[in-house]
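Dear H.,

Thanks for agreeing to be a second pair of eyes. The structure we're designing against is below in C-alpha cell form, covering all 153 positions.
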C-alpha cells in the first residue's frame, strides 16, 4: 500500500511539473502553435467542452491559466463577464481563449464565431484585447487569429 501511494504521488508530481501549474518561468505564447502545444494535453480525450482563458502580459508571457467553463458534448456556455473579470484580477494585458471540440472537428461553430466576435469587441472597449481563440480537436487546431478573424494591432 505504501509503495502504491508513493507511486501515485510521484505520478501526480510529474503531472503538475509537466502542466506547469506554478508558471514560474514565464511561458511565452507568441503563436497559435505554441498555444496549441501548451494546451493540447490538458484537453486531450475530453468528452465535454472545456473553455480556458490564458491571461498574458504585454510580452505574451503567461500570467494565469483559468478554466472558466465546462459544457456538454458539443456546447459550453461562456459568459464574457467572467472572461474579463479574471483579466482585471490578474492585471492581464491580453487574453487567449482556448476550448476543445470533443468531436475532433476543429471548425468553429456559429456560436464559436458569435462568441469570439463579441469577446473581441468587448476587448477593444475594455482595453484588454483578445489575442486569439484556439479550438483544439483530434491532433489539430483552429486559430481565429491565423484565419484572419482576429486582428491584433
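And this is the sequence the design step returned. I haven't edited it by hand at all.
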Amino acid at each position: 500500500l505504501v509503495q502504491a501511494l508513493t507511486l501515485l504521488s510521484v505520478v501526480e508530481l510529474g503531472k503538475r511539473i509537466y502542466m506547469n501549474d506554478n508558471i514560474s518561468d514565464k511561458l511565452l505564447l507568441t503563436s497559435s502553435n505554441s498555444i496549441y502545444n501548451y494546451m493540447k494535453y490538458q484537453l486531450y480525450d475530453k468528452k465535454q467542452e472545456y473553455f480556458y482563458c490564458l491571461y498574458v502580459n504585454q510580452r505574451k508571457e503567461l500570467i494565469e491559466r483559468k478554466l472558466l467553463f465546462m459544457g456538454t458534448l458539443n456546447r459550453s456556455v461562456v459568459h464574457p463577464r467572467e472572461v474579463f473579470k479574471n483579466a482585471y484580477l490578474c492585471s492581464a494585458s491580453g487574453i487567449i481563449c482556448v476550448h476543445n471540440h470533443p468531436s475532433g472537428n476543429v471548425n468553429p461553430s456559429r456560436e464559436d464565431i458569435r462568441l469570439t466576435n463579441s469577446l473581441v469587441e468587448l476587448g477593444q472597449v475594455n482595453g484588454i484585447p483578445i489575442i486569439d481563440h484556439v479550438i483544439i480537436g483530434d491532433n489539430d487546431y483552429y486559430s481565429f487569429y491565423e484565419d484572419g478573424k482576429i486582428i491584433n494591432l
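Two observations from my side: The first strand starts at residue 50 and ends at 56. The helical segments are 2-19, 32-43, 80-89, 110-126.

Warmly,
E.
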